[in-house]
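Exercise 7. Given the encoded structure of a 291-residue chain, write a plausible sequence.
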């Protein structure tokens, strides 16, 4: 059964020549569905992206490190954005959360058309050294797993086999979501690379595996007994205090102009779909006036 809290399991397999990560992100995807009121295909597209983002974040040095992911393929769902920190707090959004598309010929959700493939996948990683790493690769299919495999190969020169999946039940709830990621270590020979490619083929329906048996089933498949386990949470860093800082940054004149037109200032966070609302008395207090 899937975990009530999303988790990532990491260990070494194939005689310690390959890093294995198995993720159960069912809870993460369900929180994204709740916050953004996602359609099934939007949930699948964003859920796969959040799963891959959680994996990337698991390699960050510490909780102060962070990264962001942008997928812009020109598809019906629009731009996808995700972000995470080294403590595995993950959040994300899709530009058109209510997008509806007919299923593919095989009956599966048409994630490729939702995402599109006429664009790029970009990762910005900040390890706190003052110079963020920026990596970009062309989208391959819009199916997300293949696109992240291409990113790892072209931007980080690391061949990586990836299977990602999100299964949405008829009631709109995520029944199972997760991923299997195999990354050969530097120096791995050709046989190990071939073995890795063959192994990932068994997980084309990883979401169903997660739904029925959980991530532990995959670990058993690889004979992995001592995996490192970490929690993955949907958690945003936005706050009313940060929203107040944004209002102060816009200046009093602009803030007063918005108040005259709208009667309030709503600072919207795309990542968690939260509005921090400030009224006239709130804004006056921010600028040091008595309301």
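Solution.
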């Amino acid at each position: 059964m899937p975990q009530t809290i999303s988790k990532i399991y990491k260990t070494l397999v194939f005689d310690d020549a390959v890093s294995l990560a198995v993720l159960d992100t069912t809870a993460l995807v369900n929180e994204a569905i709740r916050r953004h009121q996602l359609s099934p295909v939007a949930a699948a597209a964003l859920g796969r992206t959040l799963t891959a983002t959680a994996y990337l974040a698991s390699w960050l040095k510490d909780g102060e490190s962070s990264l962001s992911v942008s997928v812009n393929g020109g598809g019906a769902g629009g731009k996808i954005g995700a972000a995470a920190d080294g403590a595995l707090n993950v959040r994300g959004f899709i530009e058109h959360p209510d997008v509806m598309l007919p299923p593919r010929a095989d009956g599966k959700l048409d994630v490729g058309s939702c995402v599109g493939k006429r664009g790029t996948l970009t990762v910005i990683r900040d390890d706190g050294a003052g110079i963020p790493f920026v990596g970009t690769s062309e989208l391959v299919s819009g199916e997300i797993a293949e696109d992240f495999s291409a990113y790892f190969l072209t931007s980080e020169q690391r061949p990586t086999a990836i299977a990602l999946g999100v299964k949405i039940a008829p009631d709109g709830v995520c029944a199972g979501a997760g991923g299997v990621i195999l990354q050969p270590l530097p120096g791995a020979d050709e046989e190990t690379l071939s073995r890795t490619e063959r192994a990932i083929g068994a997980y084309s329906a990883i979401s169903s595996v997660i739904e029925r048996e959980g991530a532990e089933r995959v670990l058993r498949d690889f004979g992995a007994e001592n995996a490192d386990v970490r929690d993955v949470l949907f958690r945003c860093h936005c706050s009313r205090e940060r929203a107040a800082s944004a209002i102060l940054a816009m200046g009093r004149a602009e803030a007063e102009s918005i108040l005259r037109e709208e009667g309030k200032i709503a600072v919207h966070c795309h990542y968690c779909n939260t509005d921090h609302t400030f009224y006239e008395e709130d804004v006056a207090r921010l600028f040091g006036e008595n309301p």
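Remark. The chain has a mean pLDDT of 93. Students should compare their own answers with the one above.
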